[in-house]
Amino acid sequence: MKEFLELNSFWAALFGSGLLATLWRVGTWVTKLVKAKRAENDLREQTITALEKANTEQDKRLKNVEDYQAMAEVRSQKIVKAEKASLHNQIWNKADEYIKRGYITVGELNNFDYLFEAYKNLGGNGTGDTLRAKVSNLSVRDEGILQQKEIDEH
Q1: If we measure between CA atoms, which residue out of 137, 130, 85 comes closest to residue 109?
Q2: What is the tens place of the pLDDT at every residue in 55-108?
Q3: Strands (E), 62-144
Q4: Percent helix, strand and coil across the chain, each rounded to 5?
Q5: Which of 111, 124, 130, 133 is 20 to 30 A from 68 via CA?
Q6: Rounded to whole angstroms, how far apart are CA atoms 99 and 108?
Q7: What pTM was estimated for this model as a whole?
Q8: 146 — phi, psi (to 5°)?
Q9: Cα–Cα distance between 28 and 21 in angstroms, integer?
Q10: Whole-number Å distance between alpha carbons of 122 and 46
Q11: Rg of the chain in Å (alpha carbons)
C-alpha cells in the first residue's frame, strides 16, 4: 500500500490529480466514446434500414414498369398485326376492283402504291407483291380525282 501511495503522490505531482482520479477520467472518457460510437452505429443501422426499404420499394416500381413495358410490347405487336391485316384487306379489295375493271387511274395507282409501301414496311407477305404486280400491269388512265400533272407538281 505504501508503494501505491508513493506512486499516487508522484502521479499527482506530474498530472495534477491522483492515479484513481486519472483512471476515473479515462473511464468516463471511454464511456462517452463508447456511447457516441453506439449512437453513430444506431444511426448507421437506421440509414441502412431506410435504404433497404427504399430499394425494395424501387424494385417493386421497376417491376411494375417492366410488366407494363412487356404488356405494351405485346399490345403494340397486336396493333401492328391488325394494321397489316387492314392494309392487306384494302390492297386485296382495291386490286380486285381494278383488275375486274381492267384499268387503273393515275390517282388510284398513287394511292395503291402508298398502301402497298405501308404494308411492305410492316412486313407484308408475298400476296401483296403478287397483287401489286397485277395492278402494275393494268393500263393507266390519266383521269379521276388526281391527274399526273398534279402528282408531278408535288
Answers
A1: 137
A2: 999 999 999 999 999 999 999 999 999 999 999 999 999 999 999 999 999 889
A3: 103-105, 139-141
A4: 85, 5, 10
A5: 124
A6: 12
A7: 0.59
A8: -135, 120
A9: 10
A10: 55
A11: 44
90 CB-contact burial (10 Å; exposed 0-12 / middle 13-18 / buried 19+): middle
Query: What would the grid cell of residue 63 be?
Result: 417491376
CA distance 1 to 114: 112
Q: Around 10, how many Cα atoms within 13 Å sit in the side-chain half-sphere?
A: 6
Question: What does the pLDDT look like over 12-59, one tens digit per residue?
Answer: 666 666 656 667 777 888 899 999 999 999 999 999 999 999 999 999
Dist CA 50 CA 121 (whole Å) = 51
DSSP 3-state of 104: strand
Q: Report whether 141 contacts 104 (CB < 8 A).
A: yes
Query: How many helices (H) and strands (E) would you count in the chain?
Result: 5, 2
CA distance 111 to 104: 11
Give yes or no for a contact between 141 and 106, defined as CB atoms under 8 angstroms apart: yes
* DSSP state letter for 137: T
